[in-house]
Amino acid sequence: AQSVAQPEDQVNVAEGNPLTVKCTYSVSGNPYLFWYVQYPNRGLQFLLKYITGDNLVKGSYGFEAEFNKSQTSFHLKKPSALVSDSALYFCAVRTYGNNRLAFGKGNQVVVIP
Amino acid sequence: DADVTQTPRNRITKTGKRIMLECSQTKGHDRMYWYRQDPGLGLQLIYYSFDVKDINKGEISDGYSVSRQAQAKFSLSLESAIPNQTALYFCATSDSGANYGYTFGSGTRLTVV
Questions:
Q1: CB-based contacts of B15: which residues, under 8 Å, 6+ apart?
Q2: CB distance B45–A100 less than 8 Å?
Q3: How far apart are the C-alpha atoms of A2 and A28, rounded to whole Å?
Q4: What residues contact residue B39 under an 8 Å CB cut-off, 6+ apart?
Q5: How far is A113 from chain B (nearest CA, A)?
Q6: Would you call the peptide bond into A31 cis, given omega within 30 degrees of 0 as the criterion?
């Protein structure tokens, strides 16, 4: 079975401060990991993914994520948060041979001006 | 035009009515999915299809049915709507291969009164 945990329901951060959204996963085999963002009244948009290679992956809108195999984590980070980063963030995982993504419950990020 | 189009965007219907949500895509993807989003519960998979002749139940298929009319079209039906089916519904598509993520539609907000 494959699963994702996003332990915090909401993350509050001041504008300009670093933003971290946590994700841990559980799979059998090598994981393929994804982050999506959902703005109000919109569908989910792809941010970045880890498939193989460098543990630090860079994505859209200045976001990056670090794959840590020993801690089974894939935390999303942004060095300096913007008010426009306020949204719902989803982590997802799948493995080779598994046909579906498993999504976490999502994290609401609120960036305070 | 959007890659994945869902219609309608919003719908209010009465308990007991049959309703169909439609999804069409221009991505050329074989795989299509229907998800339901409820606050605090993340995304729950209702049905998925890997080609026109392949339909599979997801985690919460009771009370729902689907039709894959063509590679580009995948419809979700609520045979007899009930209030706890009030939710945001998303269609998604993907290419085959575990390293591909999903492309989401903008969602249909359904209210059953």
A1: B81, B82, B83, B112, B113
A2: yes
A3: 7
A4: none
A5: 25
A6: no
Nearest CA in chain B to A89: B42
Structure tokens at B91: 């269609």
Would you state the structure tokens that stand for residue A56, as one six-digit string? 């630090």
Residues with Cβ < 8 Å from A98, sequence gap 6 or more? A2, B98
Cβ within 8 Å, pair A43-B104 = yes
Cβ neighbours, 10 Å, residue B22:
18
Per-residue pLDDT of chain A (113 residues), as tens digits, is 889 999 988 999 999 999 999 999 999 888 999 999 999 888 899 999 999 889 999 999 999 999 999 999 999 999 999 999 999 999 999 887 777 889 999 999 999 99
Best of B102, B108, B109, B110 to disrupt the A interface (most A CBs within 10 Å) is B102
In contact, A95 and B98? CB cutoff 8 Å: yes
Residues in chain A, how many? 113
Task: Check CB contact of B105 with chain A, cutoff 8 Å.
Answer: yes
For residues B7 and B109, what is the distance between their CA atoms, to the nearest angstrom?
Answer: 10
State residue A98's pLDDT score: 74
User: What is the distance between the alpha carbons of residues A84 and A91, in angstroms, rounded to a whole number?
Assistant: 19
Q: Which of B99, B103, B108 to mutate to test the interface with A (most CBs of A within 10 A)?
A: B99
- Dist CA B22 CA A17 (whole Å): 42
β strands within B26-61, DSSP E:
31-38, 42-51, 54-57
8 A C-beta contact, residue A22 and residue A90: no
